Amino acid sequence: MKLSRRTFLAGVVAASSATLLAPQKSIAAVSDQSYATLIDLTKCDGCLGQDVADCVRACRTANQHRFPEPNPAMLKPYWPQKSFEDWSQKRDVTNRLTPYNWTFVQHVTVEHAGVEHEIAIPRRCMHCDNPPCAKLCPFGIMKKHPEGMVDIDPDLCFGGAKCRTVCPWDVPQRQAGVGIYQMLDPLPAGGGVMFKCDLCKDTLAAGEQPACIPACTKQALTIGTRHEIMAQAEALANEYQGYLYGKEENGGTSTVYVSKVPFEKIDAALLAHSKQPESVMRLHQPDNMLITHEGKAKAVLLAPIIGAVGAFMATANKEKKAEEK
């Protein structure tokens, strides 16, 4: 996509205005016929004995052509940031989410009812029913589709990372040196492009399953209509006398986990076994920021706009002082 700088800036102003004027407390627009996925933790073993789980490998292979190729000259901090996020030299990382790894598997040992359980947990975007990331993106380039998935338009993303700030699972990951923010150079605004799972949207549209699902040899991953998946999840939870996660969390999601072990115990074990608990992708009970922190959400929404204005003033003052010298 090619835009003139003038057209680009006009578009930025229009998009920002539209986003600020739009009502931000959204209502979930999912239907029983939208897609949902079920992850059965009683079947997943994380592909024991393999360096990389099959679902992770399949995701990386299927989406490799969409991974970012940064411009080395733009790998630099952009005010007010004091650093930049570059994963381009760490593309082989598979034990967390990155711009080059959109799903991964957590491993944890949990004691429950006197038994130790080795649990493997595939993680990726939950595709929330009422996604704060999509509703609070200051440029409106994240979208919750009627089919159930939430995606990011990489051609229009500035990489401000507000979507990650409001995501209770810190899912979107930023890569610097790519994206439309480079058109504002040297005006400091943005910082790259955010990347995450989009449930293989184009593959689904072609009538095929997301890459991770057929790759799972344990049949731990299932996709279907929301009505089918929720009914299946409830039936399995009853059969296992187990627990569900994702049906209600963050206002409901299009991803549901079923487990024989309470998710509170799994979450506690993930935190307890980590050397960096603050960076753990959790299985907690988050509040949806759109519902419970409306004022804070507005502040998050305004932050990049305020930042852009501040950045413009800082640049203008800098140029003025240079002229005076």
Largest sheet entry: 4 strands, mixed
Termini separation comes to 40 Å
**Class from secondary-structure proportions:** alpha+beta
Mean pLDDT: 85
Number of helices: 10
Shape: globular
Task: Output the helix-strand order.
Answer: HEHEEHEEHEEHHEHEEHHH
Query: Unreliable runs, pLDDT <50, ≥5 residues?
Result: 13-27, 304-325
* Biggest sheet, spatial arrangement of strands: 8-1-10-9
Number of beta strands: 10
Helix content: 25-40%
How large is the radius of gyration?
21 Å
Walk me through this protein's architecture.
The chain has 325 residues and is α+β, with helices and mostly antiparallel strands. The protein is 33% helix and 15% strand. It is built from ten helices and ten strands. Strands 8-1-10-9 form a four-stranded mixed beta sheet. Strands 2-3 form a two-stranded antiparallel sheet. Strand 4 and strand 5 form a beta hairpin. The longest helix has 31 residues. It is globular. 41% of the residues are buried. The C terminus is likely disordered.
